[in-house]
Amino acid sequence: xxxxxxxxxxxxxxxxxxxxxxxxxxxxxxxxxxxxxxxxxxxxxxxxxxxxxxxxxxxxxxxxxxxxxxxxxxxxxxxxxxxxxxxxxxxxxxxxxxxxxxxxxxxxxxxxxxxxxxxxxxxxxxxxxxxxxxxxxxxxxxxxxxxxxxxxxxxxx
Length: 157
Fold this sequence. Notes:
Elements: E1 2-7, E2 15-20, E3 25-31, E4 38-43, E5 48-54, E6 62-67, E7 70-78, E8 85-89, E9 94-98, E10 103-108, E11 111-118, E12 126-131, H1 137-153
Organism: Solibaculum intestinale
Protein name: LURP-one-related family protein
Family: Belongs to the LOR family.
């Protein structure tokens, strides 16, 4: 399944529309006022299904992920020489890739979970997310949101 992640232009807080390959809205992401990024994810029916929340007052960006009110994991940026690195603590998955060029993948052991790439030369942040299994859609979206927010916070967008 492919998703298109597109940031809304002219919004005070982070807001994104997430479309499927047919252009149908799958999710709407709305930023909330808080210390750090706080992104609420709503399904097409308007029901809140997840939240990505940046922990305040950490040296490097760290994001906690929730499905409903249940904590499901975190992703954090780590110090690495010459390129950004992210550590994922969710489902035993690992995130790898070329974060300078905005191309990365998530794996569950050797099984690919998703691939994400930022589309350049757009007015707003736009990503193509290729998710291998439908049950991984929400977690994959939360990971892309967290990495985008971390890179924007550090001025690397």
